[in-house]
Amino acid sequence: MFGKVTVQIKLVEGDSAGTVTAFYMSSDGPNHNEFDFEFLGNTTAEPYTIQTNIYVNGVGNREQRLNLWFDPTKEFHSYSLFWNQRHVLFLVDDTPIRVQPNMENKGIPFPKDQPMGVYSSIWNADDWATQGGRVKTDWSHAPFFATYTGFEIDACEVPASVAGTESAKNCSSSGVKRYWWDEPTLAELNVHQSHQLKWVRARHMVYDYCTDTARFPVMPVECVHHRH
């Protein structure tokens, strides 16, 4: 509950069309919260796409997609999720690529009362993953390998027996107890990070649910308030 989770991944080389390598955090139950990195494979020499998504109380549909500024199949790069009561950050090599601020003051729910586990998987999603499902998995290239190293969790460990609201209290700074993720400097992006995020969005973003008017004739509430 709250803190930072990082894993270094080297993605599927060559023709990875149809595959999705996922690294994510999720709580349990039907009204779960979830923070997703999904790496959408592609045909040889086409760029990999990262899709991020956030579920709050069981509801997702908050996808963003980026093309990367490097080839993620050639060497390890670090992918991190940073979570505190102010925001959720998605980071690639410590560059923020997405921030979801706490907008509870606008009546928008924020994931802060459910402990989460950390997961990873690789799976076949050729009905949608590559060029909208037009390009299928070529099984003659199987098996498909993603490789992991440098796994780090610097976060508040929560016993399974403790209720989520109790855990949230225990994992927040109060009185003499100071947690690093509650430091005031981590309540929002610093100037350098803000510039990095602007650069990523301007140069590398290929899809943002907040601008998909065909899918959302009425703009999702958080998009209206959260302008970059």
Care to describe what's here?
The chain is 11% helix and 33% strand. It has 228 residues and is mainly beta. It has a single domain (3-225), classed as Jelly Rolls (Sandwich). The strands form two sheets. A six-stranded antiparallel sheet has the order 9-2-3-4-5-11. The chain is globular.
Highlighted features:
228 residues; mainly beta; Jelly Rolls; six-stranded antiparallel beta sheet; five-stranded antiparallel beta sheet; 3 helices; globular
Give the secondary structure arrangement, pairings included.
Blueprint: E1 3-10, E2 19-26, E3 34-40, E4 49-55, E5 64-67, E6 77-83, E7 87-92, E8 95-101, E9 117-124, E10 147-155, H1 164-170, H2 191-204, E11 205-208, H3 221-225
Antiparallel strand pairs: 1-6, 1-10, 2-3, 2-9, 3-4, 4-5, 5-11, 6-7, 7-8
Task: Count every beta strand, where a strand is a DSSP E run of 2 or more residues.
Answer: 11
Radius of gyration from CA coordinates: 18 Å
CATH-assigned fold name: Jelly Rolls
Share in helix: 10-25%
**Dominant shape:** globular
Distance between the termini: 27 Å
* CATH architecture label: Sandwich
Name the CATH class.
Answer: Mainly Beta
Function: Catalyzes xyloglucan endohydrolysis (XEH) and/or endotransglycosylation (XET). Cleaves and religates xyloglucan polymers, an essential constituent of the primary cell wall, and thereby participates in cell wall construction of growing tissues.
EC number: 2.4.1.207
InterPro entries: Beta-glucanase-like (IPR000757), Beta-glucanase/XTH (IPR044791), ConA-like_dom_sf (IPR013320), XET_C (IPR010713), XTH (IPR016455)
Protein name: Xyloglucan endotransglucosylase/hydrolase
